[in-house]
Design brief:
713 residues; alpha/beta; OB fold (Dihydrolipoamide Acetyltransferase, E2P); Rossmann fold; 4 domains; binds adenosine-5'-diphosphate; binds magnesium ion; hydrolase; DNA binding; EC 5.6.2.4; ATP-dependent DNA helicase RecG; DNA repair
Length: 713
């Protein structure tokens, strides 16, 4: 095997025989039958067997090879726009050929453009010909050969326990379906007999597909259970607030002091989730909890209270945010809330981001290492490089979904495997020390749909804030077409004259940061000209940390009326005065992104509005999914409903951020349609681990391969 081909196979994850055998066809070609030319139908792909009766190179309208073939029933013209001398030779007059292609009718009779052609010799195949997903430098024919060889060579002993209930296959034909063995199922899927109903292969309802999907889901569930068992062995610090002995005037626990300082009372939902967290971190196994609550539901204060409990128990806490702007905002808020209380203990809140003056950074690192930094707020910088905590007890991750944590969220290891993939992994690795694992709380406004929770987050506890703080007026959302932009700007200018503050968000263009930036700058300038009396600010990701900070501070202080920004303000930003959000080219944004952007307003008591300015294509149309997204935004303010629709529109793969991380989730099973198989796997996995551990290991090794090896480590 050439080095190039080997590399190409590896790139597709095709290393072991079992990997090759699990690389299944995208579709099939039927080369089992020959059709008489007269019986072919327009628009259908057919295989004919015919003799060449004429060959010419035509020069107009463009140079092409034109070959006339005939069988007993009729004739057909083959056309090749790009051709080589060797083709001319193999298509010489008198040759008998097997030709496969799409038949086009037309004034000049039947034609095929660029058909596949080979000599008419040997028997016709008995099975359909598989077409595999492949890459540019891996020819289909070669891939077919290596997979066929692997299929002959590989042993496929059953790993399902003999006494396990068979997977529940849907009963598509009305007749009871027999259960297929893995061996049968795989051989069939690579080389199905021509009598199969192709639709059942395409939509994967065929029992052979069902068998595979059941296996895949079982492997996934087994690994989740194993990880949960592994976590139960880990030790975490017990974080309990101190209790003042009765009758003394010892100070109140820190979190109660904090509650006393807040300008508001917690909502019932906030109190409930605080209690759930407090119970969890008081136990000696690491908490692994997701805090979900709609944008503006008040997750930050819950994080602050959790941190106060940890600090009170004598441990350090870390709060990680996905952007510098958000980290900065958290830092300001938490400093305001906690520093006066921490000062009495000789401690403070520290601050760590990438773009930081070296001297300041050194001071912060020192405070983190000697424990005077009770709480460290920052970006990725917290988990990168040489940050040494004295006693880290609790990690809070804000806007968890932005960290690409995906399904690997549930993993925490002490060593750093070469392929540590997620920030949560890295966090835990960097932070674990002294044989103790920190507790972990992940916060998100993007709730996890139930099917995903069952599948990938089986290992995660969930707390939900299901009410907004009182006094909020609902945000009114309006869709406005781009051609009414001038009208919108006029109205905006009037609103600003009345003292309102607004955001104007410019979209990413083709994922290019440079363009993105020039676009925001241009918008900033044209808006400035259109509204000479308004004070404008500009915010984008290429600005220095200090500049961003200055702009945000001015906006929060009311010194800027209109903040023109890129999506850097997407998550978390909290400026309660701002009551207008305008999103330009809203059709380019994803649903949860739009919901996050809208969540930047409606944070104070003024009635807020969100304007989604959309542009249509040249035909005055929006794509269907864009239309669905914009309508969903106009119809509901409820983040949970938005997440549900998002899942419908996008599917779970993208929801999980799998596209970014490149990690395949489920290859075959589909959570939307295979619920019954998932339930089966969920029920079987724990029993299998208990009663047939060897089979369970073999099953995971087969399906998860190398990945599983290091998960076990
Ligand atoms: P998110 O859940 O989106 O992170 P934040 O934590 O940023 O929300 O809170 C949104 C705003 O609501 C902040 O200005 C915060 O101070 C305020 N807030 C939080 N809890 C309450 C409450 N119980 N009553 C009134 N205002 C609150
Ligand atoms: Mg937030």
């Amino acid at each position: 095997m050439s080095e190039v081909l080997k590399k190409a196979l590896e790139k597709l994850g095709l290393v072991r025989d079992i990997d090759l055998v699990l690389h299944l066809p995208l579709r099939y070609e039927d080369e089992t039958r020959i059709i008489a030319i007269a019986a072919t139908r327009e628009g259908q792909t057919s295989q004919i067997e015919a003799t060449v009766v004429d060959q010419q190179v035509q020069l107009s309208p463009r140079r092409q090879l034109v070959v006339q073939v005939e069988d007993a029933s009729g004739s057909c013209t083959l056309r090749f726009l790009n051709f080589y001398p060797y083709q001319q030779k193999s298509l010489a007059v008198g040759k008998r050929l097997r030709i496969r292609g799409e038949v086009r009718g037309g004034f000049w009779g039947r034609q095929m453009l660029h058909p596949q052609v080979k000599a008419a010799e040997g028997n016709l195949p008995a099975a359909l010909t598989p077409v595999y997903p492949t890459s540019r430098n891996l020819p289909q024919a070669y891939l077919r050969r290596v997979i066929a060889t692997a299929l002959q060579r590989v042993a496929l002993p059953e790993t399902l326990p003999p006494q396990a209930p068979p997977p529940p296959f849907p009963n598509t034909q009305g007749a009871p379906m027999r259960t297929w063995s893995l061996h049968e199922a795989l051989h069939f899927l690579h080389h199905p007999t021509p009598d199969v109903a192709l639709a059942t292969l395409e939509d994967k309802t065929h029992p052979a597909w069902q068998r595979l999907k059941a296996e895949e889901l079982l492997a996934q569930q087994l690994s989740q259970y194993k990880l949960r068992q592994a976590r139960a062995q880990l030790v975490a610090p017990v974080l309990k607030p101190h209790t003042a002995p009765a009758g003394t005037d010892a100070p109140l626990p820190l979190h109660e002091q904090l509650l006393g300082r807040l300008p508001f009372a917690l909502t019932a939902a906030q109190r409930r989730v605080c209690e759930e967290i407090a119970l969890d971190i008081a136990r000696p196994t690491p908490m692994h909890r997701l805090l979900q609550g709609d944008v503006g539901s008040g997750k930050t204060v819950v994080a602050a209270i959790s941190a106060a409990i940890g600090i009170d128990a004598g441990w350090q806490c870390a709060l990680m945010a996905p952007t510098e702007i958000l980290a900065e905002q958290h830092f300001r808020k938490l400093t305001e809330w906690l520093n006066p209380l921490l000062a009495e203990r000789g401690q403070s809140v520290a601050w760590l981001v990438g773009a930081q003056k070296k001297k300041q950074r050194q001071q912060m690192l020192q405070a983190i290492a000697d424990g005077t930094a009770a709480l460290v707020v920052g970006t990725h910088a917290i988990i990168q490089e040489h940050v040494q905590f004295a006693r880290l007890g609790l990690v809070l991750i804000d806007e968890q979904h932005r960290f690409g944590v995906a399904q690997r969220l549930s993993l925490r290891r002490h060593d750093t495997p070469a392929d540590a993939q997620t920030d949560a992994d890295n966090a835990a690795t960097a932070l674990a020390g002294a044989g103790m694992e920190p507790h972990m709380l992940m916060m998100t406004a993007t709730p996890i749909p139930r099917t995903l929770a069952m599948t990938y987050y089986a290992d995660l506890s969930v707390s939900t804030i299901d009410e907004l703080p009182p006094g909020r007026t609902p945000i009114v959302t309006r869709l406005i077409a781009e051609h009414r932009r001038d009208e919108l700007i006029e109205r905006l200018a009037r609103q600003i004259a009345q003292g309102r503050q607004a955001y104007w968000v410019c979209p990413l263009i083709e994922e290019s940061e440079a363009l993105d930036l020039s676009n925001a700058t241009a918008t900033y300038e044209t808006l400035g000209e259109a509204m000479p009396h308004a004070r404008l600010g500009l915010l984008h990701s290429r600005m220095s940390g200090a500049d961003k900070q200055a702009v945000m501070t001015a906006f929060a202080a009311g010194d800027i009326d209109l903040l023109v920004a890129t999506t850097v303000i997407e998550v978390g930003v909290d400026v309660p005065n701002a009551s207008l959000m305008i999103v330009e080219h809203a059709e380019r944004f994803g649903l949860s992104q739009l919901h996050q952007l809208r969540g930047r307003v409606g944070r104070g008591s003024t009635a807020s509005a969100c304007i989604l300015l959309y542009a249509t294509n040249d035909h005055g149309k929006l794509s269907d999914t864009a239309k669905e997204r914009l309508q969903a935004m106009a119809q509901t303010n409820d983040g949970f409903e938005i997440a549900r629709r998002d899942l419908e529109i996008r599917g779970p793969g993208e929801f999980m951020g799998a596209r970014q991380s490149g990690a395949a989730l489920l290859r075959f099973a589909d959570l939307a349609t295979d619920q019954n198989l998932l339930e089966w796997a969920r029920a079987l996995a724990p029993r299998m681990l208990q009663h047939d551990p060897a089979l369970a290991e073999a099953h995971m090794a087969r399906w998860l391969g190398g990945k599983w090896d290091y998960l076990k480590a």
